[in-house]
Amino acid sequence: MRGFRHWRWHLDEMYVKLNGEMVYLWRAVDHEGEILESYVTKTRDKAAALRFIKKALKHHGNVATITTDGLRSYKAAMNTLGCEQKQEVGRYANNRVENSHLPFRRRERAMLRFRQMKALQKFASVHANVHNHFSHERHLIDRETYKARRSAAMTEWQNLVA
């Protein structure tokens, strides 16, 4: 994965209520829609953005471009890392990550709420792994291929759980 240099990442943060208090879930999504990294913080500033970007770069290697929204914390963190030329900001450019929040929000509503920051972090990372494992982009492939991939994913999941 580290040698795959034409990756495009989309970064975004979303708020989550934790016992009536707002915390922020930072997420990195690649150009194919896979969730790369999830990170929970109490603040939405340069230090939090810097920790999140460093963590993502450490786990997933270098990246060609990073698309973000207009939050100034991203720009400040990118300047600190020396990769400000990789950042892209556009009005609808970050829709890939905005749409990836939807399955998380649905699951969050079903769970009613989170009570601890550690539980939220654990849920976010596990949810990302499960979502990446079972998401096969049905609209891009035919029915037989989709069914075969879904069956293979389910078999692999059952082997992992057993």
UniProtKB/TrEMBL annotation:
Keywords assigned by UniProt? DNA recombination, DNA-binding, Transposition
Kinase as a keyword?
no
Q: What's one Pfam family here? A: DDE_Tnp_IS240
What's the superkingdom here? Bacteria
Residue spans crossing the bilayer: none
Q: Which GO terms describe its biological process?
A: DNA recombination; transposition
MF (Gene Ontology)? DNA binding
Report the residue ranges that make up the DDE domain in this protein: 7-136
SUPFAM superfamilies, per database record: Ribonuclease H-like
Query: What is the documented function of this protein?
Result: Involved in the transposition of the insertion sequence.
| UniProt-recorded name of the protein | DDE domain-containing protein
Organism of this sequence: Caenibius tardaugens NBRC 16725
> What broad taxonomic lineage does this protein's source fall under?
Bacteria, Pseudomonadati, Pseudomonadota, Alphaproteobacteria, Sphingomonadales
